[in-house]
Automatic annotation (TrEMBL):
<dbReference type="InterPro" id="IPR020472">
    <property type="entry name" value="WD40_PAC1"/>
</dbReference>
<keyword id="KW-0853">WD repeat</keyword>
<feature type="domain" description="EML-like second beta-propeller">
    <location>
        <begin position="65"/>
        <end position="220"/>
    </location>
</feature>
<dbReference type="InterPro" id="IPR001680">
    <property type="entry name" value="WD40_rpt"/>
</dbReference>
<feature type="repeat" description="WD">
    <location>
        <begin position="182"/>
        <end position="220"/>
    </location>
</feature>
<dbReference type="Pfam" id="PF00400">
    <property type="entry name" value="WD40"/>
</dbReference>
<protein>
    <recommendedName>
        <fullName>EML-like second beta-propeller domain-containing protein</fullName>
    </recommendedName>
</protein>
<feature type="repeat" description="WD">
    <location>
        <begin position="11"/>
        <end position="54"/>
    </location>
</feature>
<dbReference type="InterPro" id="IPR036322">
    <property type="entry name" value="WD40_repeat_dom_sf"/>
</dbReference>
<feature type="repeat" description="WD">
    <location>
        <begin position="95"/>
        <end position="136"/>
    </location>
</feature>
<dbReference type="Pfam" id="PF23414">
    <property type="entry name" value="Beta-prop_EML_2"/>
</dbReference>
<dbReference type="InterPro" id="IPR015943">
    <property type="entry name" value="WD40/YVTN_repeat-like_dom_sf"/>
</dbReference>
<keyword id="KW-0677">Repeat</keyword>
<dbReference type="InterPro" id="IPR055442">
    <property type="entry name" value="Beta-prop_EML-like_2nd"/>
</dbReference>
<feature type="repeat" description="WD">
    <location>
        <begin position="56"/>
        <end position="97"/>
    </location>
</feature>
<feature type="repeat" description="WD">
    <location>
        <begin position="266"/>
        <end position="307"/>
    </location>
</feature>
<dbReference type="GO" id="GO:1990234">
    <property type="term" value="C:transferase complex"/>
</dbReference>
Length: 357
C-alpha cells in the first residue's frame, strides 16, 4: 500500500479508556475535547498535544458522549451517571446540568435545540439556551443508541435495539413515517446532505438506505462488514457521493452511494474500529478504534470527491498519519474546516503542526 504512517502527538492524561473525542469548532486555537471512563472531560491543544488547564470534573461516573455546537461556543458531555452537562467552551464553566440517562447526543443545525437518546428507550429534545425539555417520545420498545438531526433541521431520526428507526418532526415530535424495520439492532444513522435519504447500520454488519419522506427502503441491504457496525461508525462525505463505515471486523470501508460498490481499498486496523469521519473537504477520512490511535487516510486526489464523481480510482489507501493516546478506544469526528488548513500537506503525507513548527 502507498503512503506513509507518520506518528503525531500522544495525549497523556486520561487514566482509563477514551470513550469519545471531538475537534472544537472554535478556531482561535485548534483543540480536542475528550471524555473517558476516568470520569473526566479534558481539553487538549491539538498542535502541541498538551492538556489545556485542569480536567473538567462534573460527572460522577464514566463520561461518554460529546457534541459541540455549530458556533463552537459550547459543548455537551454525557455520562454513565445519567447526566448531560453543557459547558462553556470559553470559560470551561458548567452552564447547566440535565439528568436523563444518555446514549447519544445531537445538536440541531441552528444550535437552538439538542436531542438526547437513552438506554431507557426515550428520546428527548431540549432548549439549548434554557435547558427546558421541549418534548420527549418513548415509543421505542428498547434502548435507543443513536439520535441525529437532519441537515435541514426539520427532522430527527432515532435508532434502537428494537430494530427500528423513527423519523419525527423536530418541532412537534410527531412521527412522520411508519417505523423503519431492520433485521437487527440499529446502531448508526447518517443523513444525506439534502436530507432526503437516511442511511442506517446494524449489529449484523448491514447498511440500509431509506427514503426520508416516505420511509421506504431503497433496494436491498448492503452486507458491508463481517462484524457489527456500532454507534458513530458511519459518515457521509460532504458531497454525499461516498459513505464510510467502520466495524468490529477491524476495518473501515468506503462505498459509492450511487452504485453501492466499494470505493478504493480497505482501511485496515489491527483491532475494532469505533468511529469514522470525513474531513470538510472530503479528501481525508479519519478512523479510530481500540488501538487508541486516530488514523488519517488520503482517499483521493484533492478536489475529486468534492465534485461528486462516482468512478475515481483511489490514489492512497495507507494511513497518512496517526494520533496516539493512552486509551484502548478512540472515537472522533471532523468538525472544522480550519483543521485542514492547519495541517501541513506535502508528498501525500499529513501531520498536525507542533508548537514552533
Amino acid at each position: 500500500m502507498e503512503g506513509t504512517l507518520i506518528p503525531v502527538k500522544s495525549l497523556h492524561g486520561h487514566t482509563k479508556l477514551v470513550e469519545e473525542l471531538n475537534f472544537s469548532r472554535n478556531v482561535d486555537e485548534l483543540k480536542i475535547i475528550s471524555t473517558s471512563w476516568d470520569e473526566t472531560v479534558r481539553i487538549w491543544n491539538a498542535g502541541t498535544g498538551k492538556q489545556v488547564g485542569e480536567p473538567l470534573l462534573g460527572h460522577a461516573a464514566k463520561s461518554s458522549g460529546i457534541a459541540i455546537s455549530t458556533d463552537g461556543t459550547k459543548f455537551l458531555s454525557g455520562g454513565h451517571d445519567g447526566k448531560i452537562i453543557m459547558w462553556s467552551a470559553e470559560t470551561r464553566a458548567i452552564i447547566r446540568t440535565i439528568k436523563p440517562r444518555v446514549a447519544s447526543l445531537s445538536f440541531s443545525p441552528d444550535d437552538k435545540t439538542f436531542a438526547s437518546a437513552s438506554s431507557d428507550g426515550t428520546c428527548r429534545v431540549w432548549n439549548s439556551e434554557t435547558g427546558e425539555l421541549l418534548f420527549d417520545f418513548d415509543d421505542h420498545q428498547n434502548a435507543v443508541w443513536i439520535v441525529a438531526y437532519s441537515p435541514s433541521g426539520v427532522k430527527i431520526a432515532s435508532g434502537s435495539d428494537d430494530h427500528t428507526i423513527h423519523i419525527r418532526n423536530t418541532r412537534t415530535g410527531e412521527r412522520l413515517t411508519q417505523p423503519l424495520l431492520h433485521a437487527d439492532c440499529v446502531r448508526s444513522i447518517v443523513w444525506s446532505p439534502d436530507s432526503r435519504q437516511l442511511i442506517s447500520a446494524c449489529d449484523d454488519g448491514q447498511i440500509c438506505f431509506w427514503s426520508a419522506p416516505t420511509g421506504t427502503q431503497l433496494g436491498s441491504p448492503l452486507q458491508a462488514h463481517l462484524g457489527e457496525i456500532t454507534s458513530n461508525c458511519m459518515a457521509i462525505s460532504p458531497s454525499g457521493s461516498l459513505l464510510a463505515s467502520a466495524s468490529s471486523d477491524h476495518t473501515a470501508r468506503l462505498w459509492n452511494t450511487v452504485t453501492r460498490q466499494p470505493f478504493g481499498r480497505v482501511l485496515q486496523h489491527n483491532d475494532r474500529v469505533y468511529t469514522v469521519a470525513f474531513s470538510p473537504s472530503g479528501q481525508f477520512v479519519a478512523t479510530g478504534g481500540r488501538e487508541g490511535i486516530i488514523f488519517l487516510w488520503d482517499i483521493s486526489q484533492e478536489g475529486v470527491i468534492a465534485t461528486a464523481a462516482v468512478s475515481v480510482s483511489l490514489l492512497h489507501a495507507a494511513p497518512i498519519s496517526h494520533f496516539a493516546g493512552d486509551a484502548d478506544q478512540v472515537r472522533s469526528h471532523w468538525v472544522s474546516s480550519e483543521y485542514m488548513s492547519d495541517m501541513n500537506v506535502s508528498h501525500g503525507r499529513t501531520r498536525i503542526p507542533s508548537q514552533g513548527a
